[in-house]
Amino acid sequence: MKPLKRILSIAKPHQRYLYGSILFNLLYSLLQIFSIVTMLPILRILFKLDKEVDTKNVPVYSGKFGDYFGYLKDMAYYKIQLNINEYGAIQVLAVLCGITAIAFLLRNLFRYLGSYLLVNYRVGITKDLRTAMYDKFLKLPVSFFTEQRKGDMMSRISNDIGAVEGGIMGSLVDVLNAPFMIIASLITLFILSPQLTLFSLLVFPVMGLIIAWVGKSLKRQATAAQEELGNLFSLVDETLKSSKVIKIFNADKILKNRFNTTTDNWQKYAIGMSRRRELASPMSEFLGSVTLLIITWFAGTEIINGTNKDPVTFLAFIGVFFQILDPAKKLSNAFSSIQGGMASLDRVSEVLDYDLKIDEIANPVSISTLKNEIEFKNIGFFYDKDNVILKNFNLKIPKGKTIALVGQSGSGKTTIANLLARFYDVSEGEILIDGENVKNLKVQEYRHLLGMVTQESVLFNDSIFNNILMGKPDATEAEVIAAAKIANAHQFIDELPEKYFTNIGDDGNKLSGGQKQRVSIARAVLKNPPIMILDEATSALDTESERFVQDALEKMMENRTSLVIAHRLSTIQKADWIVVMERGIIVEQGTHQELFEQKGMYRRLVELQNFG
Protein backbone atom coordinates (compact mmCIF):
# COMPACT_ATOMS: atom_id res chain seq x y z
CA MET A 1 0.00 0.00 0.00
CA LYS A 2 1.33 3.45 -0.87
CA PRO A 3 2.33 5.44 2.25
CA LEU A 4 -0.07 8.37 1.75
CA LYS A 5 -2.90 6.00 0.85
CA ARG A 6 -2.26 4.17 4.12
CA ILE A 7 -2.45 7.43 6.09
CA LEU A 8 -5.77 8.27 4.42
CA SER A 9 -7.07 4.79 5.20
CA ILE A 10 -6.09 5.05 8.87
CA ALA A 11 -7.53 8.59 8.97
CA LYS A 12 -11.09 7.55 8.04
CA PRO A 13 -12.39 7.08 11.62
CA HIS A 14 -11.07 10.54 12.52
CA GLN A 15 -12.35 12.49 9.51
CA ARG A 16 -14.99 14.37 11.50
CA TYR A 17 -12.20 16.20 13.31
CA LEU A 18 -10.58 17.11 10.00
CA TYR A 19 -13.81 18.46 8.51
CA GLY A 20 -14.50 20.49 11.64
CA SER A 21 -10.96 21.86 11.55
CA ILE A 22 -11.30 22.83 7.88
CA LEU A 23 -14.53 24.71 8.63
CA PHE A 24 -13.02 26.67 11.51
CA ASN A 25 -9.83 27.39 9.56
CA LEU A 26 -11.89 28.70 6.66
CA LEU A 27 -13.79 31.00 9.04
CA TYR A 28 -10.47 32.05 10.59
CA SER A 29 -9.05 32.98 7.18
CA LEU A 30 -12.12 35.02 6.22
CA LEU A 31 -12.12 36.89 9.54
CA GLN A 32 -8.37 37.45 9.23
CA ILE A 33 -8.99 39.39 6.02
CA PHE A 34 -12.16 41.02 7.33
CA SER A 35 -10.36 42.34 10.42
CA ILE A 36 -7.78 44.05 8.19
CA VAL A 37 -10.29 45.37 5.67
CA THR A 38 -12.32 46.98 8.47
CA MET A 39 -9.24 49.09 9.15
CA LEU A 40 -9.73 50.86 5.77
CA PRO A 41 -12.70 53.03 6.82
CA ILE A 42 -11.07 53.62 10.21
CA LEU A 43 -7.96 55.01 8.51
CA ARG A 44 -10.06 57.07 6.12
CA ILE A 45 -11.88 58.64 9.07
CA LEU A 46 -8.62 59.33 10.92
CA PHE A 47 -7.00 60.94 7.84
CA LYS A 48 -10.28 62.73 6.94
CA LEU A 49 -10.18 61.44 3.37
CA ASP A 50 -13.99 61.17 3.07
CA LYS A 51 -16.24 64.23 2.74
CA GLU A 52 -19.93 64.65 3.30
CA VAL A 53 -21.98 62.95 0.60
CA ASP A 54 -25.24 63.74 -1.02
CA THR A 55 -27.79 61.11 0.03
CA LYS A 56 -29.15 61.11 -3.49
CA ASN A 57 -25.74 60.32 -5.04
CA VAL A 58 -25.93 56.55 -4.45
CA PRO A 59 -23.22 54.34 -6.06
CA VAL A 60 -24.52 52.46 -9.10
CA TYR A 61 -23.39 48.98 -10.23
CA SER A 62 -22.42 48.96 -13.92
CA GLY A 63 -23.39 45.31 -14.38
CA LYS A 64 -19.82 44.25 -15.27
CA PHE A 65 -18.25 41.52 -13.11
CA GLY A 66 -14.96 43.39 -12.94
CA ASP A 67 -16.68 46.42 -11.40
CA TYR A 68 -18.61 44.46 -8.76
CA PHE A 69 -16.00 44.55 -5.98
CA GLY A 70 -15.33 48.23 -6.62
CA TYR A 71 -19.05 48.85 -6.36
CA LEU A 72 -19.16 47.02 -2.98
CA LYS A 73 -16.28 49.11 -1.68
CA ASP A 74 -17.91 52.39 -2.82
CA MET A 75 -21.23 51.32 -1.29
CA ALA A 76 -19.52 50.54 2.05
CA TYR A 77 -17.83 53.96 2.06
CA TYR A 78 -21.13 55.60 1.12
CA LYS A 79 -23.00 53.91 4.02
CA ILE A 80 -20.24 54.79 6.49
CA GLN A 81 -20.24 58.42 5.35
CA LEU A 82 -24.04 58.61 5.74
CA ASN A 83 -23.63 57.44 9.34
CA ILE A 84 -20.87 60.00 9.90
CA ASN A 85 -23.16 62.71 8.57
CA GLU A 86 -25.91 61.60 10.95
CA TYR A 87 -24.05 60.48 14.12
CA GLY A 88 -20.62 62.08 13.82
CA ALA A 89 -17.18 60.65 13.06
CA ILE A 90 -16.29 59.78 16.68
CA GLN A 91 -19.34 57.55 17.21
CA VAL A 92 -18.89 55.78 13.86
CA LEU A 93 -15.18 55.32 14.61
CA ALA A 94 -16.08 53.68 17.95
CA VAL A 95 -18.53 51.30 16.24
CA LEU A 96 -15.97 50.36 13.58
CA CYS A 97 -13.31 49.72 16.25
CA GLY A 98 -15.79 47.54 18.13
CA ILE A 99 -16.59 45.51 14.99
CA THR A 100 -12.88 45.08 14.31
CA ALA A 101 -12.24 43.95 17.89
CA ILE A 102 -15.04 41.36 17.63
CA ALA A 103 -13.55 40.16 14.31
CA PHE A 104 -10.14 39.71 15.98
CA LEU A 105 -11.75 37.84 18.89
CA LEU A 106 -13.71 35.49 16.63
CA ARG A 107 -10.81 34.82 14.27
CA ASN A 108 -8.56 33.75 17.16
CA LEU A 109 -11.35 31.65 18.65
CA PHE A 110 -11.83 29.89 15.29
CA ARG A 111 -8.08 29.46 14.96
CA TYR A 112 -7.97 27.72 18.37
CA LEU A 113 -10.97 25.49 17.57
CA GLY A 114 -9.42 24.51 14.22
CA SER A 115 -6.12 23.57 15.90
CA TYR A 116 -7.96 21.84 18.79
CA LEU A 117 -9.84 19.52 16.43
CA LEU A 118 -6.72 18.91 14.36
CA VAL A 119 -4.86 17.71 17.47
CA ASN A 120 -7.50 14.97 17.91
CA TYR A 121 -7.09 14.06 14.24
CA ARG A 122 -3.31 14.04 14.42
CA VAL A 123 -2.94 12.09 17.69
CA GLY A 124 -5.70 9.62 16.71
CA ILE A 125 -3.94 8.74 13.45
CA THR A 126 -0.58 8.43 15.23
CA LYS A 127 -2.09 6.05 17.81
CA ASP A 128 -3.73 3.92 15.11
CA LEU A 129 -0.50 3.83 13.09
CA ARG A 130 1.50 2.70 16.13
CA THR A 131 -1.17 0.10 16.97
CA ALA A 132 -1.12 -1.18 13.37
CA MET A 133 2.64 -1.57 13.57
CA TYR A 134 2.52 -3.42 16.90
CA ASP A 135 -0.22 -5.70 15.55
CA LYS A 136 2.07 -6.42 12.59
CA PHE A 137 4.93 -7.27 14.97
CA LEU A 138 2.65 -9.88 16.58
CA LYS A 139 1.80 -11.39 13.18
CA LEU A 140 5.27 -11.34 11.62
CA PRO A 141 6.96 -14.73 11.18
CA VAL A 142 9.95 -15.74 13.27
CA SER A 143 12.15 -15.43 10.16
CA PHE A 144 11.55 -11.68 10.08
CA PHE A 145 13.11 -11.18 13.52
CA THR A 146 16.14 -13.27 12.62
CA GLU A 147 16.75 -11.00 9.60
CA GLN A 148 16.02 -7.64 11.28
CA ARG A 149 17.57 -5.90 14.27
CA LYS A 150 15.28 -5.37 17.26
CA GLY A 151 16.73 -1.91 17.88
CA ASP A 152 15.81 -0.83 14.38
CA MET A 153 12.24 -2.08 14.89
CA MET A 154 12.07 -0.11 18.16
CA SER A 155 13.27 2.97 16.30
CA ARG A 156 10.56 2.55 13.68
CA ILE A 157 7.68 2.22 16.14
CA SER A 158 8.95 5.12 18.28
CA ASN A 159 11.11 7.60 16.35
CA ASP A 160 9.81 7.01 12.84
CA ILE A 161 6.16 7.19 13.85
CA GLY A 162 7.06 10.20 16.01
CA ALA A 163 8.61 11.80 12.91
CA VAL A 164 5.44 11.02 10.94
CA GLU A 165 3.39 12.74 13.65
CA GLY A 166 5.70 15.74 13.87
CA GLY A 167 6.56 16.02 10.19
CA ILE A 168 3.36 15.08 8.37
CA MET A 169 0.55 15.30 10.91
CA GLY A 170 2.12 18.25 12.71
CA SER A 171 2.25 20.22 9.47
CA LEU A 172 -1.45 19.72 8.81
CA VAL A 173 -2.33 22.91 10.71
CA ASP A 174 -0.22 24.99 8.33
CA VAL A 175 -1.19 22.96 5.27
CA LEU A 176 -4.87 23.66 6.05
CA ASN A 177 -4.50 27.23 7.30
CA ALA A 178 -2.03 28.59 4.77
CA PRO A 179 -3.95 27.91 1.50
CA PHE A 180 -7.16 29.42 2.92
CA MET A 181 -5.23 32.49 4.07
CA ILE A 182 -3.36 32.88 0.79
CA ILE A 183 -6.50 32.48 -1.34
CA ALA A 184 -8.57 34.84 0.82
CA SER A 185 -5.72 37.37 0.83
CA LEU A 186 -5.29 37.18 -2.95
CA ILE A 187 -9.02 37.76 -3.51
CA THR A 188 -8.85 40.81 -1.21
CA LEU A 189 -5.73 42.09 -3.00
CA PHE A 190 -7.48 41.78 -6.37
CA ILE A 191 -10.37 43.80 -4.96
CA LEU A 192 -8.01 46.50 -3.66
CA SER A 193 -5.68 46.64 -6.71
CA PRO A 194 -5.68 44.07 -9.55
CA GLN A 195 -2.59 45.65 -11.14
CA LEU A 196 -0.41 45.40 -8.00
CA THR A 197 -1.70 41.88 -7.27
CA LEU A 198 -0.72 40.53 -10.69
CA PHE A 199 2.69 42.11 -10.26
CA SER A 200 3.15 40.47 -6.82
CA LEU A 201 2.25 36.99 -8.13
CA LEU A 202 5.51 36.82 -10.08
CA VAL A 203 7.31 35.67 -6.92
CA PHE A 204 5.20 32.56 -6.23
CA PRO A 205 6.56 30.27 -9.03
CA VAL A 206 10.10 30.98 -7.80
CA MET A 207 9.09 30.10 -4.22
CA GLY A 208 7.49 26.86 -5.47
CA LEU A 209 10.73 25.78 -7.19
CA ILE A 210 12.75 26.46 -4.04
CA ILE A 211 10.33 24.46 -1.88
CA ALA A 212 10.46 21.50 -4.34
CA TRP A 213 14.28 21.50 -4.38
CA VAL A 214 14.59 21.70 -0.59
CA GLY A 215 11.94 19.01 -0.06
CA LYS A 216 13.58 16.50 -2.43
CA SER A 217 16.97 16.75 -0.74
CA LEU A 218 15.32 16.66 2.69
CA LYS A 219 13.80 13.23 2.12
CA ARG A 220 17.19 11.70 1.28
CA GLN A 221 18.81 13.17 4.38
CA ALA A 222 15.86 12.16 6.61
CA THR A 223 15.99 8.53 5.40
CA ALA A 224 19.70 8.29 6.16
CA ALA A 225 19.24 9.93 9.58
CA GLN A 226 16.44 7.53 10.60
CA GLU A 227 18.47 4.51 9.47
CA GLU A 228 21.40 5.63 11.64
CA LEU A 229 18.99 6.13 14.53
CA GLY A 230 17.88 2.51 14.04
CA ASN A 231 21.54 1.41 14.21
CA LEU A 232 21.92 3.40 17.41
CA PHE A 233 18.92 1.71 19.03
CA SER A 234 20.25 -1.71 18.03
CA LEU A 235 23.63 -0.96 19.55
CA VAL A 236 22.04 0.27 22.80
CA ASP A 237 19.85 -2.86 22.92
CA GLU A 238 22.92 -5.11 22.53
CA THR A 239 24.83 -3.12 25.17
CA LEU A 240 22.08 -3.41 27.76
CA LYS A 241 21.77 -7.17 27.20
CA SER A 242 25.50 -7.89 27.12
CA SER A 243 26.85 -5.89 30.07
CA LYS A 244 28.62 -8.90 31.65
CA VAL A 245 30.42 -9.84 28.42
CA ILE A 246 31.41 -6.22 27.78
CA LYS A 247 32.93 -5.86 31.24
CA ILE A 248 34.77 -9.21 31.35
CA PHE A 249 36.38 -8.62 27.94
CA ASN A 250 36.97 -4.89 28.52
CA ALA A 251 35.05 -4.29 25.31
CA ASP A 252 33.75 -0.89 26.36
CA LYS A 253 36.19 0.95 24.05
CA ILE A 254 35.10 -1.12 21.04
CA LEU A 255 31.43 -0.45 21.70
CA LYS A 256 32.08 3.20 22.47
CA ASN A 257 33.82 3.58 19.10
CA ARG A 258 30.88 1.93 17.35
CA PHE A 259 28.45 4.20 19.19
CA ASN A 260 30.50 7.31 18.36
CA THR A 261 30.65 6.33 14.68
CA THR A 262 26.88 5.85 14.58
CA THR A 263 26.13 9.12 16.39
CA ASP A 264 28.62 11.00 14.17
CA ASN A 265 26.86 9.69 11.06
CA TRP A 266 23.46 10.56 12.53
CA GLN A 267 24.71 14.05 13.42
CA LYS A 268 25.96 14.61 9.87
CA TYR A 269 22.64 13.64 8.31
CA ALA A 270 20.55 15.44 10.94
CA ILE A 271 22.52 18.69 10.47
CA GLY A 272 22.21 18.43 6.67
CA MET A 273 18.46 17.85 7.02
CA SER A 274 18.00 20.77 9.42
CA ARG A 275 20.05 23.12 7.25
CA ARG A 276 17.90 22.42 4.22
CA ARG A 277 14.67 22.64 6.23
CA GLU A 278 15.68 26.01 7.69
CA LEU A 279 16.63 27.27 4.22
CA ALA A 280 13.03 27.15 2.95
CA SER A 281 11.67 29.76 5.36
CA PRO A 282 14.24 32.59 4.96
CA MET A 283 14.33 32.15 1.16
CA SER A 284 10.55 32.43 0.85
CA GLU A 285 10.50 35.35 3.30
CA PHE A 286 13.29 37.13 1.40
CA LEU A 287 11.52 36.76 -1.95
CA GLY A 288 8.27 37.98 -0.40
CA SER A 289 10.00 40.98 1.18
CA VAL A 290 11.71 41.92 -2.10
CA THR A 291 8.35 41.73 -3.86
CA LEU A 292 6.79 43.91 -1.14
CA LEU A 293 9.53 46.53 -1.52
CA ILE A 294 9.10 46.61 -5.30
CA ILE A 295 5.33 47.04 -4.86
CA THR A 296 5.98 49.83 -2.35
CA TRP A 297 8.28 51.61 -4.82
CA PHE A 298 5.83 51.16 -7.69
CA ALA A 299 2.77 52.39 -5.74
CA GLY A 300 4.80 55.05 -3.90
CA THR A 301 5.86 56.72 -7.15
CA GLU A 302 2.18 56.90 -8.17
CA ILE A 303 1.18 58.50 -4.84
CA ILE A 304 4.08 60.98 -4.95
CA ASN A 305 3.33 61.90 -8.57
CA GLY A 306 -0.37 62.29 -7.72
CA THR A 307 -1.65 59.58 -10.09
CA ASN A 308 -2.90 57.55 -7.10
CA LYS A 309 -4.90 59.69 -4.65
CA ASP A 310 -5.90 56.88 -2.26
CA PRO A 311 -2.92 56.08 0.01
CA VAL A 312 -5.21 54.32 2.51
CA THR A 313 -6.04 51.64 -0.05
CA PHE A 314 -2.32 51.18 -0.64
CA LEU A 315 -1.71 50.84 3.12
CA ALA A 316 -4.47 48.22 3.30
CA PHE A 317 -2.92 46.44 0.29
CA ILE A 318 0.45 46.33 2.07
CA GLY A 319 -1.25 45.07 5.25
CA VAL A 320 -3.05 42.27 3.39
CA PHE A 321 0.11 41.39 1.43
CA PHE A 322 1.92 40.99 4.74
CA GLN A 323 -0.77 38.46 5.64
CA ILE A 324 0.33 36.35 2.68
CA LEU A 325 4.01 36.28 3.63
CA ASP A 326 3.53 34.45 6.93
CA PRO A 327 1.27 31.63 5.61
CA ALA A 328 3.49 31.30 2.53
CA LYS A 329 6.50 30.88 4.81
CA LYS A 330 4.62 28.38 7.00
CA LEU A 331 3.47 26.47 3.92
CA SER A 332 7.04 26.15 2.64
CA ASN A 333 8.16 24.93 6.09
CA ALA A 334 5.23 22.50 6.19
CA PHE A 335 6.16 20.97 2.83
CA SER A 336 9.76 20.61 3.99
CA SER A 337 8.61 18.89 7.20
CA ILE A 338 6.29 16.61 5.24
CA GLN A 339 9.17 15.49 3.02
CA GLY A 340 11.18 14.61 6.13
CA GLY A 341 8.17 12.78 7.57
CA MET A 342 7.66 10.88 4.31
CA ALA A 343 11.07 9.25 4.73
CA SER A 344 9.94 7.91 8.13
CA LEU A 345 6.55 6.89 6.73
CA ASP A 346 8.35 4.83 4.07
CA ARG A 347 10.26 2.99 6.81
CA VAL A 348 7.04 2.34 8.74
CA SER A 349 5.28 1.15 5.57
CA GLU A 350 8.16 -1.24 4.87
CA VAL A 351 7.21 -3.14 8.04
CA LEU A 352 3.43 -2.86 7.56
CA ASP A 353 3.72 -4.16 3.99
CA TYR A 354 6.07 -7.03 4.85
CA ASP A 355 4.85 -10.31 3.36
CA LEU A 356 3.81 -12.59 6.21
CA LYS A 357 4.88 -15.62 4.13
CA ILE A 358 3.13 -17.92 6.62
CA ASP A 359 -0.55 -17.25 6.17
CA GLU A 360 -3.86 -19.05 6.01
CA ILE A 361 -5.51 -20.30 2.82
CA ALA A 362 -8.85 -18.78 1.81
CA ASN A 363 -10.99 -21.38 3.62
CA PRO A 364 -8.80 -23.06 6.27
CA VAL A 365 -9.77 -26.32 7.94
CA SER A 366 -10.79 -26.10 11.59
CA ILE A 367 -8.94 -28.31 14.10
CA SER A 368 -9.53 -28.96 17.81
CA THR A 369 -7.26 -31.88 18.78
CA LEU A 370 -4.79 -34.51 17.56
CA LYS A 371 -6.59 -37.79 16.88
CA ASN A 372 -4.03 -40.17 15.36
CA GLU A 373 -0.57 -39.01 14.31
CA ILE A 374 1.81 -36.35 13.01
CA GLU A 375 3.65 -37.19 9.79
CA PHE A 376 6.64 -35.50 8.18
CA LYS A 377 6.47 -36.56 4.52
CA ASN A 378 9.48 -36.03 2.22
CA ILE A 379 10.34 -32.78 3.97
CA GLY A 380 12.93 -30.47 2.47
CA PHE A 381 13.89 -27.05 3.78
CA PHE A 382 16.45 -24.62 2.41
CA TYR A 383 17.09 -20.88 2.14
CA ASP A 384 18.66 -21.37 -1.29
CA LYS A 385 20.02 -24.28 -3.33
CA ASP A 386 23.46 -23.96 -1.74
CA ASN A 387 22.16 -23.85 1.84
CA VAL A 388 20.10 -27.03 2.35
CA ILE A 389 18.99 -27.54 5.97
CA LEU A 390 16.76 -30.63 5.58
CA LYS A 391 16.39 -33.15 2.76
CA ASN A 392 13.99 -36.09 2.32
CA PHE A 393 13.03 -36.11 5.99
CA ASN A 394 10.33 -38.68 6.81
CA LEU A 395 8.97 -39.38 10.29
CA LYS A 396 5.70 -40.42 11.95
CA ILE A 397 4.84 -39.44 15.52
CA PRO A 398 1.89 -41.53 16.81
CA LYS A 399 -0.46 -39.89 19.27
CA GLY A 400 0.74 -40.18 22.89
CA LYS A 401 4.31 -41.17 21.95
CA THR A 402 7.56 -39.36 22.73
CA ILE A 403 9.97 -39.00 19.81
CA ALA A 404 13.49 -37.69 20.43
CA LEU A 405 15.77 -36.00 17.88
CA VAL A 406 19.51 -36.17 18.52
CA GLY A 407 22.58 -35.20 16.57
CA GLN A 408 25.38 -32.68 16.36
CA SER A 409 24.70 -28.94 16.20
CA GLY A 410 23.53 -27.90 12.74
CA SER A 411 21.98 -31.28 11.91
CA GLY A 412 18.49 -29.75 11.53
CA LYS A 413 16.83 -30.78 14.80
CA THR A 414 15.56 -27.31 15.79
CA THR A 415 14.43 -26.69 12.21
CA ILE A 416 12.09 -29.71 12.54
CA ALA A 417 10.59 -28.17 15.69
CA ASN A 418 10.20 -24.78 13.98
CA LEU A 419 8.49 -26.35 10.97
CA LEU A 420 6.10 -28.31 13.20
CA ALA A 421 5.18 -25.06 14.99
CA ARG A 422 4.78 -23.35 11.59
CA PHE A 423 7.31 -20.67 12.42
CA TYR A 424 8.49 -21.47 8.90
CA ASP A 425 6.87 -23.36 6.04
CA VAL A 426 8.54 -26.33 4.34
CA SER A 427 10.31 -25.83 1.02
CA GLU A 428 9.40 -29.35 -0.13
CA GLY A 429 7.05 -32.08 1.05
CA GLU A 430 4.33 -31.65 3.66
CA ILE A 431 3.62 -31.96 7.37
CA LEU A 432 0.36 -33.81 8.00
CA ILE A 433 -1.78 -33.67 11.15
CA ASP A 434 -4.19 -36.61 11.01
CA GLY A 435 -3.67 -36.64 7.23
CA GLU A 436 -4.31 -32.89 6.77
CA ASN A 437 -1.54 -30.58 5.57
CA VAL A 438 -0.76 -27.99 8.28
CA LYS A 439 -0.90 -25.29 5.58
CA ASN A 440 -4.62 -25.99 5.23
CA LEU A 441 -5.34 -25.59 8.96
CA LYS A 442 -6.41 -22.45 10.81
CA VAL A 443 -3.10 -21.17 12.19
CA GLN A 444 -4.44 -19.94 15.53
CA GLU A 445 -6.43 -23.11 16.19
CA TYR A 446 -3.48 -25.29 15.18
CA ARG A 447 -1.14 -23.49 17.58
CA HIS A 448 -3.65 -24.06 20.37
CA LEU A 449 -2.63 -27.73 20.06
CA LEU A 450 1.04 -26.92 20.64
CA GLY A 451 3.14 -26.22 23.71
CA MET A 452 6.84 -25.37 23.61
CA VAL A 453 9.68 -25.20 26.10
CA THR A 454 13.00 -23.99 24.68
CA GLN A 455 16.56 -23.81 25.96
CA GLU A 456 16.19 -20.06 26.52
CA SER A 457 13.32 -19.36 28.90
CA VAL A 458 11.25 -16.48 27.53
CA LEU A 459 9.61 -14.67 30.43
CA PHE A 460 8.07 -11.20 30.67
CA ASN A 461 8.65 -8.36 33.12
CA ASP A 462 5.60 -9.21 35.19
CA SER A 463 4.57 -11.41 38.10
CA ILE A 464 5.12 -15.18 38.09
CA PHE A 465 1.35 -15.61 38.19
CA ASN A 466 0.81 -13.58 35.00
CA ASN A 467 3.69 -15.33 33.24
CA ILE A 468 2.16 -18.74 33.93
CA LEU A 469 -1.34 -17.44 33.18
CA MET A 470 -0.25 -16.71 29.60
CA GLY A 471 -0.73 -20.41 28.92
CA LYS A 472 -4.44 -20.11 29.73
CA PRO A 473 -5.63 -16.51 30.32
CA ASP A 474 -8.95 -17.55 31.90
CA ALA A 475 -7.40 -20.01 34.40
CA THR A 476 -8.12 -19.78 38.13
CA GLU A 477 -5.45 -19.28 40.79
CA ALA A 478 -5.88 -22.92 41.83
CA GLU A 479 -5.16 -24.09 38.27
CA VAL A 480 -2.03 -21.92 38.12
CA ILE A 481 -0.77 -23.38 41.41
CA ALA A 482 -1.56 -26.93 40.22
CA ALA A 483 0.47 -26.33 37.03
CA ALA A 484 3.36 -24.95 39.10
CA LYS A 485 3.34 -28.07 41.29
CA ILE A 486 3.57 -30.36 38.25
CA ALA A 487 6.49 -28.23 37.03
CA ASN A 488 8.28 -28.54 40.41
CA ALA A 489 8.05 -24.75 40.75
CA HIS A 490 5.57 -24.32 43.60
CA GLN A 491 8.12 -24.76 46.41
CA PHE A 492 10.51 -21.99 45.33
CA ILE A 493 7.62 -19.70 44.33
CA ASP A 494 6.04 -20.12 47.77
CA GLU A 495 9.29 -18.91 49.37
CA LEU A 496 9.38 -15.64 47.40
CA PRO A 497 8.38 -12.37 49.18
CA GLU A 498 5.09 -11.98 47.31
CA LYS A 499 4.83 -15.63 46.26
CA TYR A 500 3.06 -15.96 42.89
CA PHE A 501 2.67 -12.21 42.58
CA THR A 502 6.40 -11.46 42.79
CA ASN A 503 7.69 -9.46 39.83
CA ILE A 504 10.57 -11.36 38.18
CA GLY A 505 12.17 -8.42 36.31
CA ASP A 506 13.28 -8.04 32.72
CA ASP A 507 13.58 -11.48 31.05
CA GLY A 508 12.90 -13.04 34.48
CA ASN A 509 16.41 -12.13 35.61
CA LYS A 510 15.45 -12.19 39.31
CA LEU A 511 15.19 -15.98 39.04
CA SER A 512 17.89 -18.61 38.48
CA GLY A 513 18.10 -20.52 35.21
CA GLY A 514 16.41 -23.60 36.65
CA GLN A 515 13.64 -21.53 38.25
CA LYS A 516 12.96 -19.69 34.99
CA GLN A 517 12.77 -22.98 33.12
CA ARG A 518 10.30 -24.43 35.62
CA VAL A 519 8.07 -21.34 35.28
CA SER A 520 8.18 -21.87 31.49
CA ILE A 521 7.17 -25.50 31.98
CA ALA A 522 4.33 -24.46 34.31
CA ARG A 523 3.07 -22.13 31.58
CA ALA A 524 3.09 -25.02 29.08
CA VAL A 525 1.43 -27.37 31.60
CA LEU A 526 -1.37 -24.87 32.24
CA LYS A 527 -2.07 -24.64 28.51
CA ASN A 528 -2.37 -28.45 28.51
CA PRO A 529 -1.74 -28.89 24.76
CA PRO A 530 -1.98 -32.33 23.10
CA ILE A 531 1.38 -31.78 21.33
CA MET A 532 4.51 -30.71 23.21
CA ILE A 533 7.80 -29.52 21.69
CA LEU A 534 10.89 -29.52 23.94
CA ASP A 535 13.94 -27.89 22.37
CA GLU A 536 17.07 -28.40 24.50
CA ALA A 537 14.95 -27.68 27.60
CA THR A 538 17.65 -28.78 30.10
CA SER A 539 20.95 -28.20 28.26
CA ALA A 540 21.66 -24.83 29.94
CA LEU A 541 21.07 -26.08 33.49
CA ASP A 542 23.32 -27.40 36.24
CA THR A 543 22.92 -31.00 37.40
CA GLU A 544 20.60 -30.27 40.35
CA SER A 545 18.38 -27.92 38.35
CA GLU A 546 18.33 -30.41 35.49
CA ARG A 547 17.00 -33.11 37.85
CA PHE A 548 14.11 -30.88 38.95
CA VAL A 549 13.32 -29.81 35.41
CA GLN A 550 13.63 -33.31 33.94
CA ASP A 551 11.27 -34.64 36.57
CA ALA A 552 8.81 -31.84 35.69
CA LEU A 553 9.14 -32.60 31.96
CA GLU A 554 8.45 -36.30 32.48
CA LYS A 555 5.29 -35.46 34.45
CA MET A 556 4.20 -33.09 31.72
CA MET A 557 4.82 -35.55 28.87
CA GLU A 558 2.73 -38.35 30.37
CA ASN A 559 0.10 -39.47 27.83
CA ARG A 560 1.08 -36.56 25.56
CA THR A 561 2.48 -36.49 22.03
CA SER A 562 5.99 -35.05 22.39
CA LEU A 563 8.87 -34.05 20.14
CA VAL A 564 12.05 -33.78 22.20
CA ILE A 565 15.34 -32.30 21.02
CA ALA A 566 18.26 -33.01 23.33
CA HIS A 567 22.04 -32.77 23.50
CA ARG A 568 22.18 -34.49 26.87
CA LEU A 569 21.28 -38.02 25.85
CA SER A 570 20.62 -39.05 29.45
CA THR A 571 17.36 -37.07 29.23
CA ILE A 572 15.88 -39.10 26.36
CA GLN A 573 16.54 -42.72 27.37
CA LYS A 574 12.86 -43.25 28.05
CA ALA A 575 11.72 -41.91 24.66
CA ASP A 576 9.56 -44.28 22.62
CA TRP A 577 11.63 -43.63 19.50
CA ILE A 578 14.96 -41.90 18.90
CA VAL A 579 15.94 -40.33 15.55
CA VAL A 580 19.63 -39.60 14.92
CA MET A 581 20.29 -36.79 12.41
CA GLU A 582 23.34 -35.58 10.54
CA ARG A 583 23.42 -32.66 8.06
CA GLY A 584 19.66 -32.61 7.57
CA ILE A 585 19.06 -36.33 7.00
CA ILE A 586 18.15 -39.28 9.25
CA VAL A 587 21.09 -41.66 9.69
CA GLU A 588 19.72 -43.92 12.45
CA GLN A 589 16.48 -44.49 14.33
CA GLY A 590 15.17 -46.89 16.96
CA THR A 591 14.87 -47.26 20.73
CA HIS A 592 17.75 -46.37 23.05
CA GLN A 593 18.74 -50.01 23.49
CA GLU A 594 18.53 -50.81 19.77
CA LEU A 595 20.64 -47.83 18.75
CA PHE A 596 23.21 -48.45 21.46
CA GLU A 597 23.67 -52.02 20.29
CA GLN A 598 24.14 -50.94 16.64
CA LYS A 599 27.45 -49.27 17.59
CA GLY A 600 26.81 -46.44 15.18
CA MET A 601 26.65 -42.66 15.55
CA TYR A 602 24.23 -42.78 18.48
CA ARG A 603 26.58 -44.98 20.50
CA ARG A 604 29.52 -42.67 19.70
CA LEU A 605 27.50 -39.67 20.95
CA VAL A 606 26.58 -41.56 24.13
CA GLU A 607 30.17 -42.58 24.80
CA LEU A 608 31.37 -39.02 24.25
CA GLN A 609 29.06 -37.99 27.08
CA ASN A 610 30.39 -40.82 29.30
CA PHE A 611 27.03 -42.48 29.36
CA GLY A 612 26.46 -46.13 28.74
UniProtKB/TrEMBL annotation:
Presence of keyword Secreted: no
CDD domains on file: ABC_6TM_MsbA_like, ABCC_MsbA
Protein name in UniProt: ATP-binding cassette, subfamily B, MsbA
Membrane topology: Multi-pass membrane protein
Record GO terms (molecular function): ABC-type oligopeptide transporter activity; ATP binding; ATP hydrolysis activity
Gene3D superfamilies attached to this UniProt entry: ABC transporter type 1, transmembrane domain, P-loop containing nucleotide triphosphate hydrolases
Domain ABC transporter: 374-608
Source taxonomy: Bacteria, Pseudomonadati, Bacteroidota, Flavobacteriia, Flavobacteriales
Domain ABC transmembrane type-1: 20-340
A single cellular component GO annotation: plasma membrane
Any one Pfam family match given in the protein's UniProt record, by short name: ABC_tran
Subcellular location: Cell membrane
Protein keywords: ATP-binding, Membrane, Nucleotide-binding, Transmembrane, Transmembrane helix
Domain of life: Bacteria
Residues passing through the membrane, by range: 21-47, 87-106, 175-192, 198-215, 283-300
Major location (coarse): membrane
InterPro entries to which the protein is assigned, alphabetical: AAA+_ATPase, ABC1_TM_dom, ABC1_TM_sf, ABC_transporter-like_ATP-bd, ABC_transporter-like_CS, P-loop_NTPase, Type_1_exporter
Keyword Transmembrane: yes
PROSITE patterns listed in its UniProt record: ABC_TM1F, ABC_TRANSPORTER_1, ABC_TRANSPORTER_2
SMART domains in the record: AAA (SM00382)
